[in-house]
Sequence to fold (247 residues):
Amino acid sequence: MYTLFIVSSIFLSFINGGLTIDCPNIPSKWCETKEIAQACGVTEQCTTYVWKTRVENELVNLSIYYETLCPDCRQFITTQVWNTYQSILDIVNITFVPYGNAKELYRPETKLYQYYCQHGAEECYGNLIHACVINFYPKTEEHMPFIYCTESTDGDIETVATQCAQKSTIDYDQITACTHSRLGNQLQHAYAVQTESLQPAHQYVPWITLNGEHTEDMQKQAEKDLIGLICKSYKGSDPPAQCMKNL
Fold:
């Protein structure tokens, strides 16, 4: 059971991209989507009493193994993953693993790992930036806008990252310090170990796992309709409205 505070007017309107969303007459529908909740003036109540009631172990765990300059990775993240983030984040944990097809070599003279990436040194630097951002901004809501921005913008890695940090309120001085530190090197190494430990071993990128599992059928579904795949995999209560549309 949960309590909703009744707004004074049943018919409220919310302008979103030129479209008007009316508040439904039936209170049970007020929390179906974030847009409807905002139209009804009950976003805070829905967040407290409805959306946060989904227990952690009900969520679908999606991991994305990628590299920052891979065209297919960029396409997948800026379409399928971004749409999933915007639509059904309430039922999925999204984990980014920025390493992909890179290789590492330990240098005993420096006690650091050296990295070689499929798309060159720029990609290694991009992977490192993402690793540092995820470390300092661990919540999906904090790092996803930055990742989307960098993966959807062409140009010099440093310039793009700086601009995207400004847009997503990330302290880029902190990220720069990380990329030049042993911490950044160790973060990359941790992602290397995580990637190389995949079973089955990854054959390409992007490579996804769902609740720790990977199959070719799952991969094909994710590339075609990630929202549908997540919704089908979700076994918890109160599926979001977007999932009902996929039935």
Summary: The CA atoms of residues 110 and 157 lie 25 Å apart. Residues 1-18 have pLDDT under 50 and may be disordered. Strands lie at 13-16, 19-22, 60-66, 92-98, 103-107, 112-116, 207-210. The chain is about 45% helix and 15% strand.
